[in-house]
C-alpha cells in the first residue's frame, strides 16, 4: 500500500481533512462496542478545548452542578450518532428529500431532462464572487471537519475512560 506524505500544504487540503475525519469516526466506531453506554453521559467543553489529548491526562472531573461546562445539551450518544451520520453523508452523498421525485415530474412534463440555457456564462464580476464564495466555504468546511474530528477523538477517549480502558489502543 502506498503511503502519502502529509506535507504542510497537504495538511490543509480538504481531502486530507475529510480523510482524518472519516478515520477518526471509523476508529470511534470500532472502539465503541456498546453505544448505549454513551447515553446520558455529557461531553464537556473542556474536553473539546484540550483536544482530547489522551485519557487521564488532566481530564476534567464531572461536576453535575456545573451546567456551563457542558458542550451542549446532547449526551455522548447523540454526538456518536451525529458523527456517524455525517461520515455517511460524506462517503455516500446527501440525498435531498423530494429531489428525485421533482426531477422525475419535470422529465415527464417536458418530455426530457430540464435544461436551463437562458442563464449563459457568468460575467467577470460573478466569477470573482464565485471564487470568494468558494474560498469562504472551503475554509469553513475545513474548520468544521477539524472540529468534528476532534469531537470524534474526544468521544473515543472518553468512552475508553468510562469503560476503564485508559491505555487501550495506545
Question: Can you describe what's shown?
Answer:
This protein has 170 residues and is mainly α. It is built from 6 helices and 2 strands, in the order H-H-E-H-E-H-H-H. The chain has helices at 8-11, 14-31, 45-49, 76-92, 99-110, 124-163; strands spanning 42-44, 70-75. A two-stranded antiparallel ribbon has the order 1-2. Helix 2 (14-31) packs parallel to helix 6. The radius of gyration is 21 Å and the shape is globular. The chain starts with 7 loop residues before the first helix and ends in a 7-residue tail after the last helix. The model is unreliable at 52-71 and 113-118 (pLDDT under 50).
Number of β-strand runs: 2
Q: Compute the separation of the termini in Å.
A: 23 Å
Question: What is the oligomeric state here?
Answer: single chain
Question: Order of strands in the sheet with the most strands?
Answer: 1-2
Fraction of residues in helices?
55-70%
Largest sheet: 2 strands, antiparallel
Secondary structure class reads: mainly alpha
Low-confidence stretches: 52-71, 113-118
Radius of gyration, taken over Cα atoms and rounded to an integer in Å: 21 Å
Number of helices: 6
- The outline comes out as globular
Give the amount of beta strand, in percent. Answer: 5-15%
Q: Report the average pLDDT across residues.
A: 74
Order of helices and strands: HHEHEHHH
Amino acid at each position: 500500500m502506498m503511503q502519502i506524505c502529509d506535507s504542510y500544504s497537504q495538511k490543509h487540503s480538504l481531502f486530507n481533512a475529510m480523510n482524518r475525519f472519516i478515520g477518526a469516526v471509523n476508529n470511534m466506531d470500532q472502539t465503541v462496542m456498546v453505544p448505549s453506554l454513551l447515553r446520558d453521559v455529557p461531553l464537556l467543553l473542556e474536553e473539546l478545548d484540550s483536544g482530547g489529548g489522551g485519557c487521564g491526562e488532566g481530564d476534567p472531573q464531572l461536576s453535575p452542578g456545573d451546567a456551563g461546562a457542558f458542550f451542549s445539551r446532547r449526551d455522548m450518544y447523540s454526538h456518536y450518532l451525529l458523527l456517524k451520520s455525517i461520515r455517511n453523508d460524506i462517503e455516500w452523498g446527501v440525498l435531498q428529500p423530494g429531489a428525485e421525485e421533482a426531477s422525475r415530474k419535470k422529465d415527464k412534463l417536458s418530455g426530457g431532462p430540464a435544461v436551463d440555457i437562458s442563464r449563459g456564462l457568468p460575467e467577470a464580476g460573478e466569477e470573482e464572487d464565485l471564487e470568494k464564495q468558494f474560498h469562504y466555504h472551503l475554509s469553513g468546511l475545513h474548520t468544521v471537519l477539524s472540529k468534528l474530528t476532534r469531537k470524534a477523538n474526544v468521544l473515543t477517549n472518553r468512552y475508553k475512560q468510562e469503560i476503564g480502558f485508559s491505555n487501550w489502543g495506545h
